[in-house]
Design goal:
The chain has 405 residues and is an alpha+beta fold. The chain is built from 16 helices and 9 strands. The protein has a 5-stranded mixed β-sheet. Strands 1, 2, 3 and 9 form a 4-stranded antiparallel β-sheet that branches. β5, α7 and β6 form a beta-alpha-beta unit. The chain is elongated and about 135 Å long. The N and C termini lie far apart (140 Å). The chain binds glycine. Glycine binds next to β1.
């Protein structure tokens, strides 16, 4: 008697066939080591078996040897590693970033708020008022960008990112004995054979991960998601890091051009549509408490290095905006105030104070005051010219001529 997830799927599917198929299940392997799935498929082509039933991933070099049914489960490769699990609480939202990253982020929000305040202060009534209100405006402006600016979703490539960093490290990586994963890691990802550690049982995974790379263990294990979900269901101290980085599924293998492969595919689709496939999955592969969080938790933390380019661009943009604003203000100040300053003989500190109150003034007010002043000066000039010319006429004309006039 053989029992298990794959056997249940097989017997339920074969019972749905419109004809009877007598079959005999023969165990494959020595009962101690995990046998190779690819070798099992090869034994079909060699005529040793009529079909192969089991957790056989449908991969290219196997489909060249045999015909596969539709996949009855999806099970791409994932990376599993030890995690320091923190309790979820009110401050869990801070966890994605390091402290340093949060510090610089907060600083930049305030810097950007201050720059916007400087740029808006002279033009926009909402950035004016008592100093306390303006402080609140700066902080509120920075804070509100968190919630009002983001409209697009981000799609994570962390799965890819995570396996890339694993590849570039020198740490040992565990894989399931007999699985196609070893060939995939060597041939597709270019990982050195010497870094790969073969592991048999879930207990071996746990020990190797706990020991870690410095004590003869591994930094991570790469295996198919279906196995890892089961492994994590009782081991909350480990977690999948990132997401699936390949798309695979398991199927049953039959000799090339076998009509049975087609009929079994139809039966598997029916099992999927009537919910039986899910029921069998839940019976064998969903266990308990930490399977959900364990399987889905992502532990990638971003730090300052991941963002310094962004902050550099932001800093340069702020600096250019501030410089332009400052130069424009100085130009305006010189245009509006230089005639008065030249004649007033003010001290440097008084001039600085005048400049600061000019900076604080609303641009519209400066312009209208300056226009008023120009008009006043023009009318004063006219008046003095009138006086001057009447005096001249008075001096130039003799008393009798003046009388005549
Ligand atoms: N699921 C393991 C393999 O197909 O090699």
């Amino acid at each position: 008697m053989f029992t298990g997830y794959c056997i249940d799927v097989f017997t339920d599917a074969i019972n749905l066939l419109p004809y009877a198929i007598p079959y005999k299940l023969i165990p494959y392997g020595d009962g101690t080591n995990n046998p190779s799935g690819t070798e099992l498929v090869r034994l079909i082509t060699a005529g040793v078996y009529d079909a192969a039933i089991g957790d056989i991933a449908i991969i290219t070099n196997r489909t060249r040897m045999a015909d596969f049914t539709q996949p009855y489960i999806e099970s791409g490769l994932v990376v599993v590693a030890p995690v320091k699990r923190m309790n979820s609480g009110a401050w869990s939202f801070l966890k994605p970033f390091t402290r340093q990253m949060w510090g610089v982020t907060a600083l930049f929000f305030i810097v950007v708020g201050a720059v916007v305040w400087i740029l808006e202060h002279r033009l926009n009534d909402e950035f004016r008022g008592p100093p306390r209100r303006q402080m609140i405006t700066i902080l509120w402006f920075s804070f509100s960008t968190w919630f009002f600016a983001h409209r697009e979703n981000t799609i994570s490539t962390l799965g890819r990112f995570c396996i890339d960093s694993l590849i570039s490290s020198k740490d040992p990586i565990g894989y399931q004995q007999g699985s196609f994963t070893r060939d995939y890691l060597i041939n597709e990802l270019g990982i050195q054979k010497s870094r790969l550690i073969s592991l048999k049982m879930p207990e071996d995974y746990a020990k190797a991960l706990k020991d870690g790379p410095r004590n003869g263990g591994v930094a991570a294990v790469v295996d198919e998601r279906a196995y890892i979900e089961l492994f994590l269901s009782t081991r909350c101290e480990f977690s999948i890091v990132g997401q699936e980085f390949t798309k695979n599924g398991w199927g049953f293998a039959f000799p090339r051009d076998s009509t049975l492969a087609v009929d079994m595919s139809t039966a598997i689709l029916r099992l999927s549509e009537n919910g039986d496939l899910q029921r069998i999955h839940d019976k064998w592969l969903i266990r308990s408490a930490c399977s959900r969080q364990g399987a889905k938790l992502e532990v990638d933390r971003l730090d300052l290095r991941s963002f310094w380019g962004l902050y550099l661009i932001c800093g340069i943009a702020c600096l250019v905006a501030l410089l332009t604003h400052f130069l424009m203000m100085v130009r305006q100040y010189i245009r509006h105030y230089s005639p008065e300053l030249d004649s007033s003989g003010q001290s440097t500190s008084a001039r600085l104070q005048t400049f600061l109150s000019f900076v604080d003034e609303k641009e519209q007010e400066v312009k209208s005051r300056s226009n008023r002043r120009k008009l006043e000066m023009a009318s004063n000039r006219n008046e003095s010219m009138d006086n001057h010319s009447s005096k001249r006429r008075h001096i130039e004309s003799p008393p009798d001529a003046s009388n005549e006039a």
